[in-house]
Design brief:
two-stranded antiparallel ribbon; Histone, subunit A; mainly alpha; 3 helices
């Protein structure tokens, strides 16, 4: 059954499935009636700025607040293994947990 708005209950069910939202039959019926009005409001907001305003993702400019990557020397294998309970061939030695070789 298609609604006069052009958005059917099946369309709402399909969108809900894509969004992985479980809706009851009553919710599907209600949203089939409400969705056209919601879309009209979204369109009105999109048209409010006019063509002279560029679309943006944030109202304020975004700057990278992370520090710059600086390469520093890492640990030597001996330093890294200094606190290990056991090591072999510059690797941590751990108990075998699988019976495979």
């Amino acid at each position: 059954m298609s609604e006069p708005s052009g958005i059917s209950r099946a369309d709402v069910a399909h969108l809900a499935g894509l969004a992985r939202i479980d809706l009851s039959d009553a919710e599907l019926d209600r949203l089939a009636g409400e969705l056209p009005a919601i879309l009209q409001h979204v369109a009105a907001v999109q048209d409010a700025a006019g063509p002279q305003i560029r679309p943006m993702s944030h109202p304020q400019p975004i700057v990278n607040v992370f520090r710059e990557d600086i390469v520093v020397p890492g640990l030597t294998p001996d330093d890294a293994l200094a606190g290990a309970p056991a090591s072999e061939d510059q690797r941590f030695l751990v108990p075998r947990i699988l019976g495979e070789d």
